[in-house]
């Protein structure tokens, strides 16, 4: 069950144009590393990593360490509200 605090975290994560751009990119590419995401949305590596951390904390993306790189993809089981928003991107 989705509690109010987690719902707030999801909505705050989605209330940012850079994070929406990241989700839009991941929706299209299925998965990508931080460097590719940063280049695609025209943002620094550090800022992109910070945004990805917020999305991960809201359970919207999952990450996997592969060698020295961190790879991200949209969580397969995301909440209906988030899925609805990501669907329209």
Domain count:
1
Mean pLDDT: 89
Strand order of the largest sheet: 1-3-2
CATH class reads: Mainly Alpha
In short:
With 89 residues, the protein is of the alpha+beta class.
Any overview of this molecule?
- A hairpin with a 2-residue loop joins strand 2 (61-66) and strand 3.
- The longest helix is centred in the first third of the chain and has 13 residues, at 17-29.
- The mean pLDDT is 89.
- By secondary structure, the chain is of the alpha+beta class.
- It is built from five helices and three strands; from the N terminus they run ααβααββα.
- The protein has a single domain, classed as Winged helix-like DNA-binding domain superfamily/Winged helix DNA-binding domain (Arc Repressor Mutant, subunit A, Orthogonal Bundle), CATH 1.10.10.10.
Question: Characteristics of this structure?
Answer:
5 helices, Arc Repressor Mutant, subunit A, alpha+beta, globular, single chain, 89 residues
Set out the fold topology.
Blueprint: H1 4-14, H2 17-29, E1 32-33, H3 34-41, H4 45-57, E2 61-66, E3 69-74, H5 80-87
Antiparallel strand pairs: 1-3, 2-3
Helix pairs in contact: 1-4, 2-3, 3-4
């Amino acid at each position: 069950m989705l509690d109010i605090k987690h719902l707030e975290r999801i909505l705050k994560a989605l209330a940012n144009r850079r994070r929406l751009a990241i989700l839009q990119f991941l929706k299209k590419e299925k998965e990508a590393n931080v460097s590719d995401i940063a280049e695609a949305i025209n943002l620094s590596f550090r800022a992109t990593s910070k945004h990805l951390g917020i999305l991960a904390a809201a359970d919207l993306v999952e990450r996997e360490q592969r060698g020295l790189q961190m790879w991200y993809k949209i969580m397969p089981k995301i909440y209906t509200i988030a899925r609805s928003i990501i669907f329209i991107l």
